[in-house]
Every structure is written in structure tokens, then in C-alpha cells.
Design brief:
The complex is a heterodimer of chains A (about 350) and B (about 150).
Chain A: E1 6-11, H1 18-32, E2 37-42, H2 53-60, E3 65-69, H3 73-82, E4 88-89, E5 126-131, H4 139-151, H5 157-164, H6 169-176, H7 183-188, E6 218-219, H8 229-233, E7 239-241, E8 247-249, H9 261-265, E9 271-272, H10 279-282, H11 304-318, H12 344-353
Chain B: E1 4-9, E2 12-17, E3 21-22, E4 27-32, E5 35-40, H1 42-48, E6 51-56, E7 62-64, E8 69-75, E9 79-83, E10 88-93, H2 96-99, H3 103-106, E11 115-118, H4 126-146
Antiparallel strand pairs in B: 1-2, 3-4, 4-5, 5-11, 6-8, 7-10, 8-9, 10-11
The chains are: A alpha/beta (about 350), B alpha+beta (about 150).
Chain lengths: ~350, ~150
């Protein structure tokens, strides 16, 4: 055992979309043949409960990790961090297909300073997140994984730790017989029109357990400033604080499916709902990701706070409670701002606010 | 070509013709008989760039409130919902765009019109729309850069 293996985890899509499944299987099938790669399939990262075997496996990986998922990399990263799978961000050279450099002329160019509180106890290893929505074919992913595998030095410390540790039986099984992982999946990938079974496997222990779809906020601690506006705004008890008074998602299943209101009130855009249709809420990295911008606001969408208040009221009423409108937990961020001279833009914004919806 | 005003978006000249009215959500409205023909302004189209797909979520003949969501548009640069410009009624849509929306890019003030609309609301004059663009340009750039929600 001289060379260090890179662990690749493919997180499956939420639905049974055959196109998604085929891409997952193609990548997995190709990687199984690769000696320096250890590949595993797990259900959708966001949907796995804390004690799911897929997550237990992810937590047990000691070294560098490549995660392929149908999520924005930022969303995948913080979803896993929340489950105790942390590491430094590995730089991926993979770009999405329609990414190009053309940008509208913009004047100011301040770089965002890191204001977030960060996360604690980040182990010294790298996590790479690849977004499976970026390419339709397996090849770009395989190339990138090979590049990452080559990049790994031959240091064996992490692997030795793993070996001298006590790998679980299923982990060892995965390591020794990776080919079993996909035996059924590969057969289904031959375009015989057969529906993939929901478990995508042969009933062995390393087959991903089915999971239910979930809905909860994911906090990006590189952006979060612990301002507590989310905990003030959400009236469903989703948020809490830990022993050091750091905000956290405490009761995730109290969260109301489809409601992204707290994400809209977050002044740092630190709260993600990976399943939301708006890229900014789902964890897109703005222009860097080369993904599509949302011009809805320009075309007359209600502003974020109004939308958040309306969404919260809908959920309150659905729970048999009273709508509270703007009376509870409205961001106080304006109160700390020094008063500024009114200008035309203020007048314009006020005239927009006065428009009756 | 009709007379028009110009708004500079960086180096791009967005043409705002004088022969029609405008809305705050970057649509033009041109009266024909008892109705208005509605389309995207050059400002909208420059931000959208190549339009790939247009879809309406309401039926023709529907009464709408201002800012009611009425459809969706996908372009090379953006994926956005579309909203009613004023209180009024959406009478019918430009059917030819549903198969091929490219006229939005090639002729946004003509063949690329979106729908017919009836409204009693006071509309923006070209000069007022220009002022609105001037006032909102910084904000728009911030929207593009930061994707604030």
C-alpha cells in the first residue's frame, strides 16, 4: 500500500431521473476500474439523516474527499459540514459547460472581505465538491477526478491511520470489493429501458438506504456573522444556539417545506435552501459559478423582506396561527446605520414601496 | 427609425423610443386602439441577452394585479420570473415567441412584443423611464454582482 487513494463519493439525485442515474452510474463504473480511487454511492446529501450509513461512511473517511452531487458546491460543502464532515476547500478546475467570461461592464470591484464567524476544528485535509449539473457526460468529471488523484502526494500517513484504526466491517467491505457496489447499477445502465430500482443495488449492506426528501436551512459559516436575525425572524423554532452562543439549525424538521423566508432576511446571504429554485437561495456562488442570474427583482418581484414576510404568514396560517406580517422579528439592521442624506434613489425606492401590490 | 432617448449601460447604448410608454419593471407599452402592446425594453434585453425560452403561467384574458407573477423567461444569462407591469388585464400573448423567442433579441420594440394588455394606470413617459434607469443603475449592478436576494 504505497500510493494514497482518493475517496470519491457520488451523492445521488433526489428523484429517479434516469438521466441523472445514468450519469452517476457511468462515473461510478469508470472509477471502479481506477486503482487510486475508492468510489462509493450515497443518497442525496441533504436528505440523509444524521445516523444514515452513508453519513457514517462519510465521517469515517480520514483523508481527502471528492464529493459529486446535484448541488451547488457551497450547498454541498455546508450540508456536510453540518454533519461533521469538514475539511479545507479543495480547488477544482472543473467549470460548467455554459460558463464563459463575458460580463457586463460593472464599475465597482470591491472584493468581499471574509466577515463570517467560520467553523471550528477544521481537519487538515481537502474536500472537493463537483456539481453534477455542470456537464451532461461523465468524461469531464473523470478527468477532474484523475487530476485530483494525481495531485495527491504519496504521503501515506492518513491511510496508515485508517489501516491502524478500526474500520467498520462495511467500510472494509467497500474497500476490498468495490465492484459489488455497482454490479446491478452497471447492468441497468445499458439502456435496456428498465427502471432503476430505488435502492440502486442488490440488497447488500452497502446499498444506499432510501431516504425521504427533507427541507431545512443550511448555514454557510464562512458568511454567517452570528447576527441572530434568522432566529428572530423564524417563528417555528428551527434555529437555536450552541453552548458558545453560535447560531445553529437546531430543529430542522420544524422547518416548513418550501419556505425560504429566513434565507431572504439573512443580511449576509449565509442561509441556503439547496432545493430552492432560486440559485441565490440554493447556494450558487454568484458570478463565480457561472450560473444564471436571477433578474426577477428587476422585472418586478416583491423585495426579499416582503416575500419573506408573506411566506412566513402563509406557514403561520397553515399551522392555525395568526399571520404577523411585519410586526415580529423584522431585521433591525437599519437602526445601526448612520443617517444619510436622502438622494434621488431614496425617493425612487420609496415610490416603489408605495406601489400597491 | 423613430426618435429615441439613450441610456448608457457601461458602454452599451440602450435605446428608449419616444413613441411609447414604459413601466417600472422595464417593459414598454404602446397603445393600439383600446389596448397596449407590451414588450421588453432594450435595457431588459441587454441584461437578459439571448432568450432561450419563454413561458406564461396565466391564461389569456386574465385580470392581474401589478407585480403578479405571470410567467418565466430563460436566457443565456438569466432565469427570471416575469410580473405584470400594472393592474389590468392580459388579453393575449405573442404566440410566435413561444416556439422561437429570438425576436425578443432581434426586434424587441417590434416583432418581439410579448402580450396585449389593458390598463387604466398612469404609465411612465420615456423621460421618466430614463430617470428611473439612472436612479437604479447602481442597484442593478449590485444585483448582477452580488445576486442579493
Amino acid at each position: 500500500m504505497a500510493a494514497k487513494k482518493v475517496t470519491v463519493v457520488i451523492s445521488q439525485g433526489q428523484g429517479k431521473n434516469p438521466v441523472q442515474r445514468q450519469l452517476e452510474e457511468e462515473i461510478a463504473a469508470a472509477l471502479i476500474m481506477q486503482p487510486d480511487v475508492d468510489v462509493s454511492l450515497v443518497p442525496h446529501l441533504y436528505d440523509m439523516s444524521g445516523d444514515h450509513t452513508g453519513l457514517l461512511f462519510l465521517r469515517s473517511v480520514p483523508g481527502n474527499l471528492v464529493v459529486l452531487s446535484w448541488l451547488y458546491p457551497r450547498a454541498a460543502r455546508w450540508t456536510l459540514a453540518r454533519q461533521g464532515v469538514c475539511g479545507h476547500e479543495g480547488v477544482t478546475l472543473l467549470k460548467s459547460e455554459d460558463e464563459d467570461d463575458e460580463e457586463l461592464e460593472t464599475e465597482s470591484d470591491e472584493t468581499q472581505e471574509a466577515r463570517g464567524i467560520g467553523s471550528r476544528d477544521v481537519p487538515n485535509r481537502k474536500l472537493y465538491f463537483l456539481d453534477l449539473r455542470g456537464h451532461a457526460t461523465a468524461e469531464p468529471y473523470l478527468d477532474e477526478i484523475r487530476r485530483i488523484a494525481d495531485e495527491q502526494s504519496v504521503q501515506t500517513i492518513d491511510l496508515m491511520q485508517w489501516i491502524s484504526g478500526k474500520p467498520k466491517a462495511e467500510q472494509l467491505e467497500r474497500y476490498l470489493h468495490p465492484e459489488r457496489l455497482l454490479s446491478t447499477g452497471a447492468a441497468n445502465g445499458n439502456g435496456n429501458g428498465q427502471e432503476s430500482s430505488p435502492t440502486n443495488g442488490n440488497g447488500q449492506s452497502d446499498v444506499p438506504e432510501p431516504v425521504k426528501r427533507r427541507w431545512y436551512p443550511v448555514i454557510d459559516y464562512s458568511r454567517c456573522t452570528n447576527c441572530m436575525e434568522c432566529i428572530d425572524f423564524c417563528l417555528f423554532g428551527v434555529y437555536g444556539v450552541d453552548s458558545l452562543d453560535t447560531i445553529l439549525v437546531e430543529q430542522q424538521d420544524n422547518c416548513k417545506k418550501g419556505c425560504p423566508a429566513c434565507s431572504r432576511v439573512c443580511p449576509e446571504n449565509a442561509i441556503m435552501f439547496p432545493g430552492h429554485k432560486t440559485p441565490a437561495i440554493a447556494g450558487a456562488d454568484g458570478e463565480i459559478a457561472g450560473l444564471k442570474i436571477d433578474l426577477s427583482k428587476l422585472f418586478g418581484a416583491p423585495d426579499g423582506l416582503a416575500a419573506a414576510v408573506a411566506e412566513r404568514d402563509v406557514e403561520l396560517v397553515a399551522d392555525g396561527r395568526d399571520a404577523v406580517g411585519m410586526t415580529v422579528g423584522i431585521p433591525k439592521r437599519q437602526s445601526t446605520k448612520p443617517p444619510q442624506q436622502r438622494d434621488e434613489l431614496d425617493d425612487l425606492m420609496d415610490s416603489l414601496d408605495n406601489v400597491v401590490l | 427609425m423613430t426618435d429615441s432617448l439613450t441610456f448608457m449601460m457601461g458602454k452599451y447604448e440602450a435605446r428608449i423610443p419616444l413613441d411609447r410608454s414604459y413601466s417600472e419593471n422595464h417593459l414598454w407599452l404602446q397603445r393600439c386602439d383600446d389596448r397596449f402592446r407590451v414588450g421588453f425594453t432594450a435595457y431588459s434585453v441587454r441584461l437578459l441577452q439571448d432568450v432561450y425560452f419563454l413561458d406564461w403561467s396565466i391564461d389569456a384574458g386574465t385580470d392581474v394585479k401589478q407585480r403578479k407573477e405571470i410567467g418565466e423567461i430563460e436566457s443565456s444569462k438569466a432565469l427570471s420570473s416575469l410580473y405584470a407591469p400594472y393592474d389590468g388585464r392580459v388579453l393575449d400573448f405573442n404566440e410566435s415567441l413561444l416556439d422561437d423567442p429570438s425576436a425578443i433579441n432581434t426586434d424587441n420594440y417590434g416583432q418581439g412584443w410579448l402580450f396585449h394588455f389593458q390598463t387604466e394606470a398612469p404609465l411612465l413617459e420615456p423621460q421618466q423611464y430614463i430617470e428611473l434607469l439612472e436612479g437604479g443603475w447602481e442597484e442593478t449592478q449590485r444585483l448582477l454582482k452580488g445576486q442579493m436576494n
